[in-house]
Structures are given as C-alpha cells and as structure tokens.
Amino acid sequence: MSRRALITGITGQDGSYLADLLVDKGYEVSGVVRRSSAANLWRIEHLLGRIHLHPADLLDQLSLIKVIDEVRPHELYNLAAMSFVPASWDQPMLTGEFNAQGVTRVLEAVRQVDPAIRVYQASSSEMFGKVREIPQTELTPFYPRSPYGVSKVFAHYITVNYRESYDLFAVSGILFNHESPRRGIEFVTRKVTDGVARIKLGLADSVSLGNLDAQRDWGFAGDYVRAMWLMLQQERADDYVIATGVSHAVRDLVEIAFGHAGLDWKKHVRTDPKLLRPAEVDHLIGDPSKAKRQLEWTPAVDFTALVTMMVDADLARLSTEPRHIANASTW
Ligand code: NAP
Ligand code: GDD
C-alpha cells in the first residue's frame, strides 16, 4: 500500500516541488487548495490527474479536520502561509491568523483525527531577524523583525509544544531563503530574473529595487523539499536548519543575473526608497551541520547555478508568452 501525504500550500513554490518529489517516490499525494475566484494551479498543472485536491483553509478549523479525516495521511506537510514579508506589515492581523493560529488549527486537527500523523511545519530563517550570532543554528535565539517573522516564531514554538505536550511527531524545518523558476514574482530573486528577461527581450527598460546591501543565504527549492521529506523519515521528531552556509548580497544577485544575459546592471537597476522595509533583516547565513550529519542532506545547486537557471527560465517563458505575468516592478 502506498503512503499517503497531505500538503497544505500545494499551489505554492515549495508545495509544487514537494508534490513532484512525493509523486516520484510513489506516494498518494493530496493537497489543500483554498477557494478563489480564479484557479491558481500553474505550478502543479503538470501533476493534475496524479494528485488529489481538497478545498480547505487555514482560517477554518472544520475544513482542516474534514480534509485530514478524508485523506488520512501518514505525513502532513504544513506549507501554507502568507509568505511575503512586506505584506505582513500591511496585514499583520491576517498574517497572524494564517501563519500562527493557522498552525495551531492544523496541529489540533491532527490531534483530533489521528495523532500518529507525522507533521512538518514550515519555519523560517526570518525568525532570526536581527541575528544574535553568525552563522545561525538550531540553538540561535530568535529576534524577528516583521509581523511575518513574529508569526513564524509562534508557529515554531506551538509545533515544539505540541510535540512535547502530546507526543506528536511534529518537526519544525528552519529553512533559509530558497528560490526557483516557480518562485512568486514579488520576491527579489524572481523579480530580478523576470526583470532581466524583460529588459533583454525589449519588453522593459529597468527594474526598481529596494535595499541592495541585504544579504541572504539562498538555495534551490528542489533541494530544500528533499530535506522536508527526510525530516519526517527520522526515528525521532526534531528541528533542523536548512541552508547552504553561504550568503550573498542582493547586489551580487543583480550582477550575476544581468551578467548572464550580457547586460550591464548599472544601466537598468533603479533604487526606490518605497521598497525599503520598516525594519530590515540585514544578513542571514545558516549553519546546516546538523542536517548534514543527521539527515545526510546537502544542497546540489549553488547560488550562481540557481540564478542562471532562473534567468534562463524567465527568458524561455517570456519568449513564448510575454504577457503571462504582470511586470514585477509594480511590487
Ligand atoms: P508560497 O509560494 O507563497 O505558497 C504559499 C501557499 O500557501 C500557497 O499555496 C497559498 O495558496 C497557501 N495559502 C496561503 N494562505 C492560505 C490559507 N489561509 N489557507 C490555505 N492555504 C493558504 O510560499 P513558499 O515559498 O512555497 O513557502 C512555503 C512555506 O515555507 C511557507 O509557509 C513559507 O512561509 C515558508 N518558508 C519559505 C521560505 C522560502 O524561501 N521560500 C523559507 C522559509 C520558510 P494560494 O496559491 O491560494 O495563494
Ligand atoms: N521582495 C523584494 N523586492 N525584496 C527586495 C527588493 C525588492 O524590490 N529589493 C531589495 N530586496 C531585499 C529585501 O529587503 C530583503 O532583504 C531581501 O531582498 C530578500 O527579500 P525577499 O526575496 O522578499 O525575501 P525575504 O528574505 O524577505 O523572505 C523570504 O525568505 C524567508 C526566509 O528567510 C520569504 O520566502 C519568506 O517567506 C521566508 O520565510
């Protein structure tokens, strides 16, 4: 009998890569989709017919109980969230409802339906915020700098608490930034690679950015979903930092992306103070030693390969369907 997995956030970047991985491994894969006036299935179109989709929402406890009861998964990956940091200042209450209490709802639903279900919670390096040590490990104290980061700290500790209170197999993966051609267009990597492709193809002349000095530890989403799966295959539930251990500035990202397309970034990049954040996370760099040691996980794609892969994908997409996605410089 094949194992069953339920993914919340299956329509998102990570959900789609995780669904690919689990389908390849022979899992029966189900995903949660929330009601919207227009379908948002572009990342999982290639999987339709091989996965099951169920309506539910992190805001609605009964819908979560219902989907978990229907699917009866062995593994539940809670990837759904409001994941764009700037939006969390515009909608702090909703961010807390989704990202903090939404996790409590998922854990309660699991406890009620079947406490043997193994749960993965998508935690974030944003929890480290104004970092207390370099590099950051599983033991580094948190200092979140946005309503998003604060909501993820709650979610992390409620996951740990349910593990300790009710003996749930609940793990928290503290993942550093990870990107791909399926990344949302508003995040800086994709905004840059989409912008480069538009400029190269004559569809735009410039791209506007905020803080070019911020540094992140960027990896490839396809590598990171493998770590999620590994965490749920261990004998004991635990928390892990997943990162490359290398950081780069936004400026490096820009240089590599424009350079790959044969463009001089200084001619095309504008800076816009409106894109600066009320409180910035200046420098994230993770120490993935524990994951390497215990999960035998290592990333396969480095920063340059990631950025050039994304530029190539945007060039290919825009060469065939130039108006598929709105111009990123509106964010
Ligand atoms: P994403 O592309 O923004 O996807 C988020 C997913 O959550 C989408 O499927 C979205 O559905 C769903 N969702 C949002 N609100 C929901 C609700 N109320 N009920 C049900 N579903 C809801 O994010 P991602 O990059 O794949 O990230 C996945 C998870 O990892 C998130 O929890 C994120 O915070 C966390 N994380 C991401 C990174 C990273 O660098 N990517 C790093 C650390 C942690 P719609 O398609 O309907 O909007
Ligand atoms: N989005 C965006 N747009 N970011 C910009 C821009 C811009 O025009 N210009 C500079 N940046 C800087 C931001 O100020 C930030 O320091 C950095 O680029 C990365 O921004 P994002 O790509 O939006 O990602 P993030 O680091 O805020 O959050 C992502 O990673 C977290 C893990 O650390 C998201 O995926 C979160 O969901 C995730 O938890």
How would you explain this protein's 3D organization?
The chain has 331 residues and is α/β, with parallel strands linked by helices. The chain has two domains: 198 residues, Rossmann fold, CATH 3.40.50.720; 95 residues, UDP-galactose 4-epimerase, domain 1 (Alpha-Beta Complex), CATH 3.90.25.10. Helix content is 40%, strand content 15%. A seven-stranded parallel beta sheet has the order 3-2-1-4-5-6-11, sandwiched between helices. Strand 1, helix 1 and strand 2 form a beta-alpha-beta unit. Helix 1 packs across helix 7 and helix 6 packs across helix 10. The longest helix has 22 residues. The chain is globular and about 60 Å long. The C terminus is likely disordered. The site of guanosine-5'-diphosphate-alpha-D-mannose (GDD) has 22 residues, from helix 6.
Brief descriptors of the model:
331 residues; Rossmann fold; 10 helices; 7-stranded parallel beta sheet; binds NADP nicotinamide-adenine-dinucleotide phosphate; 2 domains; alpha/beta; UDP-galactose 4-epimerase, domain 1; binds guanosine-5'-diphosphate-alpha-D-mannose
